[in-house]
Amino acid sequence: MVLAVAGLAAAGCSSSSSSSGASAASSSSTPSSSSSAVNLSSVTLNIGDQKGTGAEAVLKAAGLLNTLPFHAVWSDFTSGPPMLQAMASGSVDIGGVGDAPPVFATSGGEQVEIVGARQTPDGDQDAVVVPKNSPITSISQLRGKKIAYAQGSSANYDLLTVLKKAGLTIKDVTPASLQPAPALAAFTSGSVDAWDIWPPYVQQVTAQNGARVLATGSAYGSPYSFEVASKAAVADPAKAAAIKAYLTTLDKAYIWTATHTDAWATAWSDASGLPISIMQVAAKVSATTPVPITSAITASEQNLVDQFYAAGLIPNKVDISGYITSEFNNTVP
Prior knowledge:
It contains twelve helices and twelve strands.
């Protein structure tokens, strides 16, 4: 079912709009700016997103999309790496990504900064899947096999840790760097032996194609995902005030999804075009909780830097503490 996911990966832009249905809005007030001198109604925040799966859908489902006090311009991307590339060019101010994209971006010299964090209580939910008729039954059997994943994404780090725990390295397999839609096509056509991917694609291929999961969960990857902003936006008082208002509202929305998984699954299904039965599973396993930026989170992200550098996958071993801030911690409820 390639067409269903093609909708998730379609690129486009939209401005924020009103929402309807079950919501968190009735119990939440519109966030105030970090500075009373900033008129947020005159501020435009360019937000990177992943269509049907990201912040705009979450905010709409929670009934909070139309409470944003600034003008939001949404741009959709297939995954985190191209979103941060757009951020480096100045066309995106902030966006949500997994654990690995900030590492690749900062190592490549992009001036971005982690401004918010979320944690998946049950650990990383990316997974390595193989076709239902594949003879592969363990990670160690991936030696010499062709594996699809999005380079620089959370799946990239998941694959690195999965292989390492099995005594393999990235050099022991044949990597196929593919964004989700073409990766799904390659996987279902049999042109790759395995695929490392995140929800809801994991749930889609297992339910619709009978794919088998070889590895997932707390033993692999990292449990964090991030909101990343350009350093230029953080340094701009008006943009920073809008970022604070955005994070305050978004954190409330993610808390709503974690406590209203059935309602979120229904909204997610509508946004993505995938069946409700698939999204009910995806919503439960991928629920995330907003958490403050701490030294432990910085250390966890630095560990990604160290491992990617040791594997020869990034050009520079950066000090990630220069690209992460606790300035917006007071947005976490």
